[in-house]
Every structure is written in structure tokens, then in C-alpha cells.
């Protein structure tokens, strides 16, 4: 997280969306939602995913994440986006995005009880 997301700067917001969606979806799968249901009913909408995850026990009340999720939804629109348009319009700084994402990943880990990957170290 702290080293950045994108291989290409134009995909930065898209990759942030993917990481956030994977975290939220892992909680939804853990509480019993089927992957096909998530794809059909949530798709690339982080705001829908966050709302459903919080309603099912994630309890991660972060106004900045809610704002970011709304901005990025649907996150597919940020693939190969105009870098200046996306970066300038984003309501959250890059540093805060990293921090919010790290905190969300930690919260999902706490709620699901899944262990961290081998070799993981917080810097």
C-alpha cells in the first residue's frame, strides 16, 4: 500500500478501486454472499459494497471511505482515465487513500479472522 498502487499512473484510481472492492467483497463472501450475487448486484460500485458490508457486520464507519467509495463508483470508469482529471478531482489525498485502504484491510482481517499473508510486516 505504502509503495503505491499503479504500474501506470493512468490506472491509479482504478487500482485503488480494485483493492477496496476486494477487501469489501472478502467480508461479503465470508458472511455468506455468493460471488455471482455480488457481481450481479454490486458490480463495480464500491459504495454499494461498503453499504452492504457495514449492514452485515463490518461496522467500518469512515466518512472518508464513504466519500471515496462514492467518488470511485463505478471504479471501472477509472481504467486508463485521464490522470489529471481523476487526480485533481479526487476528494481524498493519495496519502489518506493509502491510510484508509490499510485501515479497511485491517478491519476486514479483524472481522473475518483470516490471518495476514506470510511475510507480512507493517511498516
Question: Count the helices. How many?
Answer: 6
Beta percentage is under 5%
Radius of gyration, in angstroms, nearest whole number: 14 Å
Low-pLDDT runs? none
Instruction: Count all strands and give the number.
Output: 0
- Round the mean pLDDT to the nearest integer and report it: 85
Shape: globular
The helix/strand series, from N terminus to C terminus, equals: HHHHHH
Largest sheet: none
Oligomerization state of this entry? single chain
Gap between N and C termini: 10 Å
Structural class, by secondary structure, is: mainly alpha
How many domain units?
1
Task: State the helicity in percent bands.
Answer: 55-70%
Record the SSE blueprint:
Layout: H1 12-30, H2 35-41, H3 46-55, H4 63-72, H5 83-89, H6 94-112
Helix pairs in contact: 1-3, 1-6
